[in-house]
């Protein structure tokens, strides 16, 4: 399979569910030949999925009144047509608004027959929804959840991009799955927090109560990476299969955001920068690796980004530069950027 066009075609067939057994076997065999092949497969698959979304977005009417769109935030609406792609309307500053959309769950053909909803939270906004089975979900800033209008079959499945806290309605006969990239978190009745932002190198799951299982689908079968017990945290590397378990004494560190609090407890400056970036929709760059030797404990509630940075500077030898949003050619605005450097002695 040297020609990328052929690879693209096989992925297209796989994505639509129209591939033959021979075509699927050929693709699976090629992927298993080397890690390079698997990497290429993932890259081409992403290109294909994004191209489908862009094609769908071209058909969308973006002339709706912005005030009407804002009034819909926190609500959901079913999609009108299967495979219609993501409905998205860009506003000033490219504020993500609630959208109705469809997501095809790879390897789960039954979702092709269901109406899929999506709830998205803008940056700086948090929301709470209840699924058809009674499961409650809190969505953090800049996050999105895909879920069926009604669960069917033997699995309750959703897909998360960003961060969310789940209180899963107990039902041992119908396990609850949260798809997060190459992994899935499996639960029956429990409460847990998942952080899975697209720009993060790792996916983190913290278990507040009950038990969950981190799994992957390989060869059509579930492969378990291990079960979490209450108070444990699992960190999974998105680029490979490295999974690490931790015992987390401070649950508020992972759950404080639900109450509008951003908590740090002996966190490296890299972790602080990552979470502040999500909280304020800002790209934060650490310009000196030696700063990773510094750890922070702090709680932020109503502070602005500038106030948070001043507090960090007060407790450590850092300097920072804020580069404000710049308007792009398409009239949208680039994400604000902060560069953190080691301070002068």
From TrEMBL:
Q: What is the designated name of this protein?
A: FecR family protein
The molecular function terms of the Gene Ontology recorded here are: sigma factor antagonist activity
Q: Which InterPro entries match?
A: FecR, FecR_C, Ferrdict_sens_TM
Q: Where is the Protein FecR C-terminal domain?
A: 261-326
Source superkingdom:
Bacteria
Q: Which residues cross the membrane?
A: 82-106
The alphabetical list of record keywords is:
Membrane, Transmembrane, Transmembrane helix
Natural source organism: Sunxiuqinia elliptica
Matches recorded under Pfam families: FecR, FecR_C
């Amino acid at each position: 399979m040297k020609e990328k066009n052929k690879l693209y075609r096989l992925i297209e067939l796989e994505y639509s569910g129209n591939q033959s057994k021979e075509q699927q076997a050929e693709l699976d065999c090629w992927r298993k030949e080397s890690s390079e092949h698997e990497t290429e497969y993932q890259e081409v698959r992403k290109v294909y999925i994004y191209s489908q979304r862009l094609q769908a977005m071209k058909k969308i009417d973006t002339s709706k009144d912005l005030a009407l769109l804002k009034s819909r935030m926190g609500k959901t609406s079913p999609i009108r047509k299967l495979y219609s792609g993501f409905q998205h309307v860009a506003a000033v500053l490219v504020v993500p608004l609630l959208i109705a959309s469809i997501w095809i769950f790879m390897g789960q053909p039954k979702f092709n027959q269901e109406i899929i909803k999506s709830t998205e939270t803008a940056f700086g906004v948090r929301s709470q929804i209840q699924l058809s089975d009674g499961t409650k979900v809190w969505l953090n800033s800049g996050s999105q959840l895909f879920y069926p209008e009604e669960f069917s079959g033997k699995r309750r499945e959703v897909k998360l991009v960003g961060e969310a806290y789940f209180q899963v309605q107990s039902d041992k006969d119908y396990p609850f799955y949260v798809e997060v990239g190459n992994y899935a978190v499996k639960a029956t009745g429990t409460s847990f927090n998942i952080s899975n932002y697209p720009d993060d190198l790792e996916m983190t799951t913290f278990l507040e109560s009950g038990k969950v299982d981190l799994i992957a689908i390989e060869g059509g079968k579930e492969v378990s990476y291990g079960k979490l017990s209450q108070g444990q945290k699992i960190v999974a590397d998105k680029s490979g299969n490295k999974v690490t378990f931790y015992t987390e004494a401070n649950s508020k560190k992972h759950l404080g955001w639900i109450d509008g609090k951003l908590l740090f407890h002996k966190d490296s400056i890299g972790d602080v920068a990552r979470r502040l970036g999500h909280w304020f929709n800002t790209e934060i760059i650490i310009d000196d690796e030696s700063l990773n030797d510094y750890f922070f404990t702090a709680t932020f509630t109503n502070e602005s980004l500038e106030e948070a940075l001043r507090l960090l500077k007060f407790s450590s030898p850092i300097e920072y530069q804020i580069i404000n949003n710049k308007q792009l050619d398409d009239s949208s605005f680039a994400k604000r950027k902060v560069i953190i450097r080691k301070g002068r002695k």
